[in-house]
Fold:
Amino acid sequence: MDPLFHFASTAVVLPFGIKYLSKPALVGFFLSAAFLDIDHYFFYIYKFKHLGLKKAWQFYQSIRHQPKKVFCFFHTIEFLLLIIFLNLVMKTQFFYGFLIGLIFHLLIDLAQAIYYQEVNYRFWSFWQYLFK
Ligand SMILES: [Zn+2]
Structure:
């Protein structure tokens, strides 16, 4: 999903969160819901050993709608389980909000993948990526 869409969708739901979430939870929600796609950039840096944000953007535009070109760890079931585990262990409002934002972000990405019939185009698990 386009990062701008994630910013916009986060901005739309954030006012509802103000009513129900604490400030640390709102920060966690905002960071994960709006910035989770930073892992795309990390993968680009890892793959190309280059920090150029514009080139990274162009790279991702060029491989849009192509199956399994990148691996994004923050978008995996293992990362989701890690955040659930951290919630259970640390029990902080920040991680609670981060988990809600993560699920919100992943549901939007999943909806887009279903819409474009591209559910199998991404790695949903680290193990899936290892044994591709
Ligand atoms: Zn995403």
Observations:
- The CA atoms of residues 39 and 72 lie 5 Å apart.
- The first helix runs from residue 3 to 20.
- The chain has a mean pLDDT of 92.
